[in-house]
Amino acid sequence: MLSESVELACKFILCVLLTQLGKTFTAINRIITEIDQDDEFGQSIHIVFTMNTLKNNEQFAKRLETIENKYGKGSVCVFTSKYKGKYKHVKSRTELQGLCLDESSCPRVVVVCSNYTRFDDGVEFLKVLNKNKTIIQRAFAYYDELHKYISDTLRSQIEEVHELDIVRGIIALTATPERILKTDGGFWHRLRLIQLDYFNDYNYAGYKDMIFNCMDDYFVSPYVRPSDFKGLDSETVGFISHVLGKYPEILKENTRTFIPAHIRRIGHDAVRQLVFDTNSQCVVVVLNGVEKTIQYKDHQDNVKTIPLVSEDEEVCETIARLTIKHGLQHRPLVVTGFLCVGMGQTLTHKSLGSFTSAIFGHMDLTNDDIYQLFGRVTGRMKDWGDNYVQTQIYCPTTIMHRCQVMEECARNMAREHNGEVVTQEDYRAPMYTMGEPGEAAVENIRAVKERKQMKFKAEDTDKSVLPFNTQEEAIAFAQTTLKRKLNKRSEPFLAPKELRKDDRNPTMEEIEHRMWGLNKTTPVRMAPTHDSKWCVWWRPSLVAGLRA
After folding, report:
1. Among 132, 248, 270, 401, which residue's beta carbon has the most beta carbons within 10 A?
2. Is the Cβ–Cβ distance between 318 and 367 less than 8 Å?
3. CA-closest candidate to residue 308, choices 281, 275, 335, 338
4. Domain covering 22-174, topology
5. Strand ranges (DSSP E) for 322-457?
6. Does 237 have pLDDT greater than 60?
7. What does the alpha-carbon distance between residue 352 and residue 221 come to, in Å, rounded to a whole number?
8. 3-state secondary structure of 2
């Protein structure tokens, strides 16, 4: 039986994956799966709160093309004040509600920017659907990068959404869930992770694939930081200048470098000027709330500016297309900005290749923010052939350590706790074993891994699982072979509630991993599985006449 706090959050699922390892892909697959079941369970609508930038909004919407193509024009709707893409666009909740009154105009997916106004709109929209009879019978909410926007107000709103009968599921996407998980009990204390079919980081370039060049000769102390934005701009640009002064070859021909500045646009301008001063042949991409451009100098030293105008494509596709169109692909390419490049945005593209270098001197950032910033150079790219190279990272040692630990925290969630209920302590576990490099830390990590392996080996030697086509076959096997009587289930198509995930029966693999509910009183169990078969599982040591 689940605890009271987990029961309270039974519709809420947390999706934690490494940066650029497929959180959006996972969410869209879940959306498509639910839409495909509309004929059986009733028409669904999916409200997706993306990051609060137009570029991230466009990026998520772009990845929904499959749904628009399959279910027709208008299946995807963008709810925001400004939008120039190809999807249906509404500017107000009233306009959105109007679309949902008619089956011919009702969207399947609504993409919304994450901000206080739109969060309010989302709650009120779902309350209207819950109260009034429409063609929509099921609703799902998705919060992209929830850690960035979580607050007491948003927590209350999500809990309110959770209680609506029409809402069947809520998924939060993040690589850094620490701020989402709370330690004071209640709804947010213990949350269930999404059940992934398997954790796959094939072709993924993470911190182990980077070449770190630690530079600790610029900052006087990692603990004394300027408190004002002007100081932060100066500090960040100063470190960039320090690195480029030592390693000007970072900006040589055929390079691609990620050099984020700080919050203020004046810092982005300063980075661009510094890059041009270092190598006038550079091509500089600036992405911020006002400017989205590519700038370079022609052969007469005249500055040319190309607006990053999207053709219903992601920003990485726009950068690659325009760079190649203007014959700039062999020049040194630099991407800068901060808020618009710090999280969620994909900046690399196969046609240009991975970043060859990156500079991170942002000593004031939280663990979440520095890992998210570092995450822009990660991703599935090892199969890009000659266009993939290991990225040279230039940063202070403390930033390297923080990025390494934060990636391990996210990996720990996806690999070790897949589909399980987790707490903040579970997420933070790698922080207790990974610290400054040294023999003690390495030994501690090795010991923890060995204890885990011993635990799993002990469990693996004492568990058995078998599939059957029908419930009758499963019962007969248990009675004749295991000498145990199993009662026929009154609900033959549903596994017990504690085994189901989002009202989905468990898979054979999930049962084998968890071995739910076995003890001396109940040494054998049976349940229907996700593929409409039946599973019997037992511990041989607990069954009379059998040995492990």
Report:
1. 270
2. no
3. 335
4. Rossmann fold (3.40.50)
5. 333-337, 357-359, 379-380, 392-395, 421-422
6. yes
7. 37
8. coil
Does the domain at residues 205-402 carry the CATH identifier 3.40.50? yes
107 three-state secondary structure: coil
pLDDT number for residue 445: 42
Find residue 258's DSSP bridge partners.
335, 358
- 44 three-class SS: strand
Judge if 22-174 and 205-402 fold alike in CATH terms. yes
39-48, 373-382, 466-475: least confident range: 466-475
What's the CA gap between 445 and 431, in Å, rounded?
Answer: 11
Question: DSSP letter string over 221-276?
Answer: -TT----SHHHHHHHHHHHHHHHHHH-GGGGSTT-EEE----SSHHHHHHHHHHHH
Q: Which amino acid is at 526?
A: M
- Bridge partners, 335 (sequence order): 258, 285
Environment class of residue 293 by beta-carbon count within 10 Å: exposed (0-12), middle (13-18) or buried (19+)? Answer: middle
pTM recorded for the entire structure: 0.75
Tell me how far apart the alpha carbons of residues 359 and 237 are, in angstroms, rounded to a whole number.
10
Q: Tokens representing 380?
A: 């599935």
Minimum mean pLDDT among 273-277, 433-437, 535-539: which range? 433-437
Residues facing residue 303 across a β-bridge = 297
b (16+ CB within 10 A) / e for 164-174: bebbbbbbbbb
Q: Give the Cα separation of 468 and 78 in Å (integer).
A: 46
pLDDT digits (tens, 9 = 90+) for 248-272: 999 999 999 999 999 889 999 999 9
Cβ contact 153:116 at 8 Å: yes
Query: Parallel, antiparallel, or unpaired for β 191-193 and 12-16?
Result: parallel
For the chain, give every domain's residue range. 22-174, 205-402, 464-542
The pairing of strands 76-79 and 138-144 is: unpaired
Q: Which among 271, 344, 285, 282 is positioned nearest to 319, based on CA atoms? A: 285
